[in-house]
Design brief:
This protein has helices at about 1-10, 20-30, 40-55, 65-75, 145-155, 175-195, 210-220, 225-230, 230-240, 245-250, and strands at about 55-60, 95-100, 100-110, 115-120, 125, 130-135. It is of the alpha/beta class. InterPro entries: MetalloPept_cat_dom_sf, MtfA_fam, MtfA_N.
Amino acid sequence: MLRRLQRWLFGQADRPAVTEEQWARVEAGLPFLTYLPPDARSRLRALALEFLDQKTFHGAHDLVLTDDILLSIALQACLPIYNTGLDAYSQWVGVVVYAGDFVIPREEMDEDGVVHEYDEPVLGEAWPDGPVVVSWQPQQRTDGLNVVIHEFAHKLDMCNGQADGFPPLPADMRRADWARIFIAAYHDFCHRVDHDLPHAIDAYAAESPAEFFAVMSEAFFEVPLRLRAAYPAAYAQLKRLYGLDPAAGANPRPTHDSNPQEH
């Protein structure tokens, strides 16, 4: 199928069919998708194929992008825009995929005006109006860290300007509610990180409100019960933004006591 998919991506053929066997194989590597109801899984697949139709992929350093890699990235990339649709990604076309982490040259000016150049190893990067760069991990993590969801959450955040943790909201959501809830959650999280207190998500979220939103988005899809327990109000906002409720699918069925008692 790879050759047909590549020809389709370059406009040389009709969209190839993806077999149920292949969907199942790819989705098995993304176990958090089992939290979604069947109708959501179907819509996500359709969005993933449209995403592949609209974007140009490049494997860095001769990385061969197989069909399974492309489908996996597309499924994860479409989670943040499941509710809003692919128009949110309309201002850019490129996706660059590295095998593992990669290095990006940086420049930073100190207080004396001296510019320091250095190389920073990263797992992903997203630029306004530019490409998304992600690393491909053959073994997907299941601990709430997901570089693909993270970078595409940044892309959603950038739809109304620079990434600042305040993405465009659906018409039925109030900006004031989002700001109040996420600012409070961010301050609480930073306090926990600064004082070595337990925290529910990756400490990198304390870097900025933009990183907090992206890391919260990773956790929303991958470890929704943990996120909902730690920040229920923020989880509810993400639930409305993304139009999905992963915690409902992740929550085990309650066990009923054979002799219930009232207390």
